[in-house]
Amino acid sequence: MLAFIVSRLLQSLAVMLAVSFLCFVLFNFVGDPVNNMVGQEASTSDREEMRRDLGLEDSVAVQFIRFLGNATTGNFGKSYRLARPVSDLIVERMPATLELVVVAALLALAMGIPLGVVTALRRHTVDSGAIMTFSLAGVAMPTFVIGILLIYVFSVECKSWAPAIGLSPDWCFPSFGRGETVKLGWWNSGLLTAAGLKAIVLPAFTLSLFQMTLVLRLVRSQMLEVLRTDYIKFARARGLTNRAVHFRHALKNTLLPVITVIGIQIGGLIAFSIITETVFQWPGMGQLFIQSVQFADIPVMAAYLVMVSFIFVAINFFVDLLYATIDPRLRLDRAQLGTAGG
User: Fold this and answer.
1) 89-295 falls under which CATH superfamily?
2) Which of 137, 196, 211, 318 is deepest in the core (most CB within 10 A)?
3) pLDDT for residue 227
4) Residue limits of CATH 1.10.3720.10 in the chain
5) DSSP H helical segments within the chain, as ranges?
6) pLDDT-wise least confident of 46-60, 151-165, 265-279
């Protein structure tokens, strides 16, 4: 197990270094931030002085090494646009994004797993066909289209149809913003207020729909495959009830490969939250990144993508450990490969 952990750690470190370098190099070609920071009346000497202050006259390699050295201490430099430490900006925006991602992930799991089981156990029924048709819409429709439709139905038109069915217009969901928040130390939470909970419903559902569809289809396909195995037939032959066969044996083994996909998708939620945050004007890290791209704010862009990459790598690392713990065959295969190589 120790060799497995060390191997995964080395792979994760190599991925982080490669991603960090690629991001940093690419962002040096998105534009000159000095042009956005000074007016047209600025002289050439003023521009050169600002470039020296920002360290932009150094080579890319020197800038990257300086960036890595500072990043290890949590210092990502200052934002060119806001003239504030990037770490402070990310800490301010991180709670909004993480709360959105956590709620979206819980929605995806809470809807995807039960619906996947239902469509597998009742695959020839009308309700199963309706669920699968709905899942096609979740895959085919872009996230921004889903968000706009939800805003139109439950924020704009809601004020017209809600009273018609006996509901107050106050029932309608807000179309933008995070609602009222509460300070918990450095964490700014919107999940502890009614307005905050109401504001997160539409963006969280929008963000979770694609992942929910993916989980649904994966659980369904794995469930159907497990139900055809010999040990399930043996369990039925022993006289076990359908409930015991389906949930104690089949579902338990179905969720093994789902763990890996779910772990990867949690990282994907953070990356895809950029679109959702833009549509709903959600004050998270994704919106900060979009604003930084428009301004060529290289420190913010590089820090954001390095952080997202780190979350991806960390989640994959822990998923690998969890999967190896649940399924020891992975450790045995790696040990056999190491013996054969020696």
Assistant:
1) MetI-like (1.10.3720.10)
2) 211
3) 80
4) 89-295
5) 2-27, 33-37, 44-54, 60-71, 86-121, 126-140, 143-151, 158-164, 194-227, 230-237, 242-243, 251-280, 285-295, 298-326, 329-341
6) 46-60
